[in-house]
Amino acid sequence: MAEVGAKLIFLSGRLTAAVKNSTKKGTLFFVVHKHKATSLHYDFRLEIGGVMPSWSIPKGPSLDSAVRRLAMPTSDHDLDYRHFEGVLPPGYGAGPVMVWDEGTYNPEVEISKGVRAEVTDRKEAERVASESLKEGNLKFRLYGKKLEGSFALVRTAGFGGKESWLLIKHRDEYSRPGYDAKDYDFSAVSKRSIAQIASEGESGTTPFT
Ligand code: MN
Q1: What gap in Å lies between CA 119 and CA 103, rounded to an integer?
Q2: How many A from CA of 42 to the centre of ligand 1?
Q3: Model pTM above 0.90
Q4: 54 Cα to the center of ligand 1, angstroms
Q5: Residue 56 C-alpha to ligand 1 middle, in angstroms?
Q6: Grouped pLDDT means (10 residues each) for the chain, 209 residues
Q7: How far is the CA of 53 from the centre of ligand 1 (A)?
């Protein structure tokens, strides 16, 4: 079996047991902001190349491997602002922002049909993530507080004339049929609901400047 990058963890069903006792977390950051601007959406952000390429997901990420969530690309996010939770002023998407989920991730590569390998070496992880982003087919394993396991973000033909992607949960031990982000209206860092954040403002995490 060809070696891809440094350490490999094989994620086929029969080798799932091996994963649980190996890598505990990813080498790159991710965050999901629940953002009530003009309309409610979830900003899904992955650290790649020192910034956070981002996708706006109207219905939010899901752990249900049977659903595909529309994800519209938005502008890159500053890595330093990933902890922000509070109320954004006019001109910055006015409205409350919650750190809905946060954690780390590793890119994955498909080494044979349905068999994915996790790239855990930082330099190689950056390289694979950048290339996958350009190709429009990102595979990754999340280590979050709500979201865990293997996912894919795939660029599609387009939606209403705009570039669009789909966020898909791979079937694994973290798949949860019927999972709906709206049922989890609490912050990963403060436990507050989006309504509480709207009325209280900043949580005392990193300020937005
Ligand atoms: Mn937003």
Answers
A1: 16
A2: 7
A3: no
A4: 9
A5: 6
A6: 37 41 79 96 97 98 97 95 92 91 96 91 96 97 97 86 93 97 97 95 53
A7: 12
